[in-house]
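Quick one - inputs below.
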Amino acid sequence: MERAAIIGVGWYGLRPTTPEVSFREMVFEAATRAYEDAGIDPRQDVDAFLSAQEDFWEGIAIADEFAPEPLGGVLRPTVTVAGDGLQALANAVMLVQTGFFDIVVVEAHGKPSDIASLGEIYEFALDPIHHRPVKPAHPLFMMAFDAQAYMMRTGADPSHLALVAAENRARGLRNPRASYAAKISVDEVLEAETIMDPLTRYDIAGYVDAAIVLVVARESVAKKLSDKPVFIDGIGYATETGTGTLEWHSWGRMPSMRVAAMTAYAQAGIGDPLSSTDFAEVEDRASHYQLIALEELGLAPEDQAHKLYERGEYELDGYYPVNPSGGSLAMGVALEATGLVRLLEAVLQLRGEAGGHQLDGVERAIVASWRGPPTTTSMVAVLSGPEMGF
Amino acid sequence: MRANLHVKDRVGIVGAGMTLFRRRFLETPRELAWEAVKQALDSAGLTLRDIDCVVIGTAPDAFDGIHMNGEYLADGAGGFGKPVDRIYIGGGTGVMVPISAWWHAASGHCNTVLAVAEEKMSHAMPHPQYVFAYIWDPILERPLGPNLIWIFAMEMRRYMHKCGAKKEDIALVSVKNKRNALDHPAAQAAANITVDDVLNSELLVWPVNRLDISPVSDGAVALIIAREKVARRITDSPVWIEGVGFTLDNTHWYNRELGYPRYVEYAARMAYRMAGIERPWKEIDVAEPYDPFDYKELHHIEGLQLAPRCQAWKLLKEGYFDRDGELPTSPSGGLLGVGNPIAAAGLMKVAELFWQLRYEAGKRQVKKPVHKGVAQAWGDLMQAGTVIVLGN
Amino acid sequence: MSGESGKPKTPLPGTYLKRDEYMKLPGLIKYKPVARYLFSAGQAQSRFLHGLKEGKILGVMCPSCGRVYVPPRAYCEYCHTPTSEWVELPGTGTIHTAVVSYIATDRSRLEEPEIVGVIRLDAPGYKEDQYEFAGLFHKICGVTPEQVMDGSAIGMRVKPRWKPAEERTGSVTDIECFEPVEG
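Output:
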């Protein structure tokens, strides 16, 4: 079966606030850049448009009604996936692989600075019968449960989490898209204000406004249109359980990421991800999730991620670089655009266009994201760079 | 979209199930989803173990009262540990769900897909209509204090003006669909009524009276969709998905002619092209156009190219769209008769075609022989058209 | 639902409750979401709202196809190019469609019915066609429900009735309503 390839990327924002534009104008800016990058006319060349959004992030019921105009999708097949941008990308790949669609555009955006009650919106995502009446002090309390369970299982301690937080934020200093980059020590992370034990304010990623637009094409079309296509060798996603049944969640683990990874690896024909790929952009909306993700992705042996981390195996010049961009800890969480922000970074690396944080000679990458609490949905993609395609 | 002459694997519907449609249910949204899934699985003789992927459809999150509603419904819809997507296109969602399930299967990514649509509107207070206050543009429209029915009334008024239809001509749709629904076991608003009953019901926004509108409903529907080789193992008579189409028009509905739904036409042309249908008014045997309001069915029949523009109301008067007519529309009873749990109502229309094309619709079975059917839903601010063509 | 009779082999699931029964359910949870937003109007709508404050209806033109957009957008949705040239419209127009509302947003009955509709605005010298046009959704005053019902309201010439300058806030409600052009 023909693969799908990314032939254009565009982004706007990746800043904590963007009061100068509406969310639509933000998407238009990102779309214009993506179409320019791909060298296509959205009104002539695109067969379908997919957007990723959720009503309560937008403050609009049936938010998908605003999707077509800024993308150039008016009177064209346009549909919304209520999920992370990577789920929309997976749907784009499927559309291409039906054989009916040559070029599909994927869009995701988040404008958390427009939301005046973000904590309450998160609370509204909790199960109305079992969880909301408990009135948890922080709607993201599951993050701390996962951190505690992870530490108990593996023997990691808060300093390991702090190491991830400090390293990711420091890496972001070389990435112009990283608003939350900082030169910060492990001790400073540990001594900072505790938000939810054991997580301090530096262990948890901040929020940014961002719009990301991708142009996806069928392999043969991509090779004709682009001299730097990035191929999607595999893409998978899975949900562990519904948000109302967190009682069934395997705390301190992400089984959904394991299922998603298996799907993506099988499509890509990968047995051992460590030897078949060169680097990864993985979930880190809180520091411990990066360690959990490494294990679920098969990039670290069970219970060992924190030790390998300590030994420097995942540094930029280590055995297997992880999150060269600085991850969400440095770049922020852009709601449903988060997965595509990480994918954007991987695409730029594979094209050799990452700038200050470019890795040498990388040809294949893993991108793994998760929608964040209270959901249990993960997405994993395996990408290969332009030279791998010929 | 390109024409694909080399389709290796067709995609078929092999099972369907639904709950009752009612104004108010004890069951939670995820319990409703599960009940529909269970019915569908049983009808195909399958268990959850046989399902690869799940596509969920539900319209605004505010009805179920949960942010990220797809995540909440995931396990009720049978998505435990599976790839789960929630597809979303306003009222058009119900028909978009099987369209999305089609590409999940046609791409080869999933062998079997559960397509589930659920809506629980009744528990929104003080009235479910209030939820619709948030579909409007927050800056340009919401300050005017709009009610959802306004926009339909404006469209209906324009249709009447353009096509010379009167309120009593349009009310016939409501009479027909509510009568058809008498034979539907899930129906909430089935009734033998007259045009006068419609005209004398409570006046809400002229020209819209209470009985011009489908009711507020809770309910869920599920379909099981499979790739050809799998479908043939499950049943001798799968119903094939032969064409799909979807289109979104611009958000600015008040910058457009409201008398004709060009977005439905575009979506229909896409689906017909894929299905190889050139003269839909001749080749389609049974149709389930979306009918949340009675005029909408006429509007959509014209958009679907099943009647010339402005002629649908005249043909309706002649009985052309009756269950024993030339081209039966909404033989299920539609949203006006069976009920309108938004996303689930659209999927109910696809389920009806499934039963019609398998000759399993019992008393609802249309009189003429059926080979091809079309179902359609509309959504957003007079924007979305979703169309699916099925064949047996 | 399958089977020759078309009737379910078992009754369809779902437990219907009357409103009273529902409201008396043990442990019924009442929950009001706190959802507050600070919407950025963006570049195009902000300028439009400033114009309303000054008593002007502004549109913006697409340099590529010549359409004039009211309400303005920063981009042309048909050409996907940025819009550029701002123009002031006379404000007059015709009623495209109008209805008489007897209910409010929350479906409670209104004491006095309200007339709302779509106004097709005059945009002299710019591209328009039968299907697409510059226009606004707004309230209509000075027109009777009978005129809406008999169809004489459709096509009627109207102009905006502005709030006094000192009461305008840069909102779409700076226009009180559209009213018939005299004479």
